[in-house]
Amino acid sequence: MNFNLKLVIMKNYLFPHRFKLPGMILFIIGLCLLLLSFFEIYIPDWEVPFPYITYEALFGEREYFVIKEMSLGTILPILLYIIGGLLFGFSKESQEDELINAIRKNSLVWAVYINHIVLLVMLLFIGGFDFFGVIIMSSFSLLLFFIIRFQWKKHQLNTASDEE
Amino acid sequence: MKNKLKVYRAMHDYTQQDLADKIQVSRQTINTIEKGKYVPSTLLALKMAEVFQVPVLDLFQIEDSDWE
After folding, report:
1. Which ipTM value was assigned to this complex?
2. The pLDDT value given to residue A128
3. Which of chain A's residues have a Cβ under 8 Å away from the Cβ of B29?
């Protein structure tokens, strides 16, 4: 049983379909919180002690294996966004077949291209401290580009095949 | 690649959904294969041939443009 389960997971690297909806909800909450904090509209200031492997404060020395306050308001949206996004984007469809698999792979290739094209353009035209923002954004945008493309292609597939 | 799926479906009086259910794919997949927008895997082609009880070559034929 366990061996079979391993084989299934390795075969397509996808989560079971039941994770799709919870993933979507987490992803949307995470995305909204990220956008709110990115545009500095609302940043929750919850802080919790957390064991860090390394910690370097601004203008401070690097410390190892210390317990410091972690800004949960900054980390939580990222956690929700990444975990939710992975579950939403990589859970099986209700009817998972080779066409959906092909669409998923194509969307992923498309997203990698777009993400890096955007990064290249920004690298050239956005300078100074703003470029840090670009790098941070670029590490999250791949998942977003992939999810948008995949959902759009699935929508196109459903609407194009309405007539029999 | 040409296919005669629609013809064989009509001969057996199957809807796209009927055929989809028999080979465990979505109806949209059957639709895109029929329209020639998607080329199925060998496995799927063999399953369809099995459902209609015909050789795969009766269902799918290669075209000159496939060689280009």
Report:
1. 0.88
2. 85
3. 97-100
Q: What is the pLDDT of residues A99-145, one digit of tens each?
A: 999 999 999 999 999 999 999 999 899 888 888 888 888 989 999 99
For B38, which of A99, A158, A164 is closest by C-beta distance?
A99
Same domain, A89 and A103: no
For B43, name the nearest residue in chain A, comparing CA atoms only: A98
Low-confidence ranges of chain B (pLDDT < 50): none
Tell whether the model's pLDDT for residue A90 goes beyond 60: yes
A·B CB contacts under 8 A? 33
Assess if residue A5 is contained within a domain: no
Domain that holds residue A25: 12-93
Of A98, A157, A161, the CB nearest to B41: A98
CA distances for A68 relative to A37, A47, A61, A71, A80, angstroms: 22, 10, 14, 10, 22
CATH assignment of B2-51, among 2.30.42.10, 1.10.260.40, 3.40.190.10, 3.20.20.70: 1.10.260.40
